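TL;DR need structure tokens for one chain.
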Amino acid sequence: MPTRKVNLTDHLDGFIERGIASGRFSDASEMVREGLGLLEQREREDKARVRWLRAAVKEGVEDVDRGEYTALRSRREVDGFMRQHRKEASAAIAVDRVAG
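>> reply
TL;DR here they are.
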């Protein structure tokens, strides 16, 4: 397995020490691997969000060009519209996670 030398702040060194002392991790390498795995997952999720947003913007522009849009006239209408679209975005991200 490849090894790397890294420099940590005192804060991060203490965080690692506490993670090991708690019994959650057996050593610093295990904790660093877990952290890197979470960073990798976050990057995948960010990319999925950007893909979804780009598709949504493209779809919205095409809808406006065709005259197919809804005018939202109150904060309540905007809130309901956004709530629905957040649900759709979350579902699309979940599908992307599974597809990996």
